[in-house]
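REQUEST ID: PR-0412
SUBMITTED BY: lab tech R.K.
PRIORITY: routine
TASK: structure prediction, single protein chain
INPUT:
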Amino acid sequence: MNPSIDIPEFGIKRENEERRDGGCAVVFDPESQRYAVGDQIQKGKYRLFSGGVDTGEDIQEGVLREVVEESGLDDYLYVEKIAEAETHFHNILKNVNRVGRATCFLVILKSKNTIDTKLEPHEKFTLVWVTADEIISKWKLHNENKDYDHWIYFLEKSVGRAKELGYDKTSNI
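STATUS: complete
OUTPUT:
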């Protein structure tokens, strides 16, 4: 397989899928050895900071914009593209079936300082800090429709890279 041409596909194809390309970030704080995720208040589920990218917007700039808007985190030490995937999933927040090319970035923080967030009305989550093992465990518990398969793939690759770079010293993934 040529990684520059072939990318993995995740999820279950659904009827009436709307195409929306975008990406996500796996955000890590080396000081606390924790990952930043959104905790969906009404669902009790973790989510990566993610979203669609605007027409003409650079994918990395778009994903980092989503991180700032959704988490308030904006003090980055290191950013690296980790992987791409073709994804099929049900967007819980917008109640719509989606298909799209997702690009994942590993974001290593300088600090956990935050600015005000700009959540959209459908975004009902708060910033929490958890271990990679806790995230994977929660996703696997709620993955009956394969909606988290691509995030599991992205998190595992990101944790591996954070370990290679010497930032993540505690994850068991």
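NOTES: The chain has a mean pLDDT of 92.
REVIEWED BY: pending
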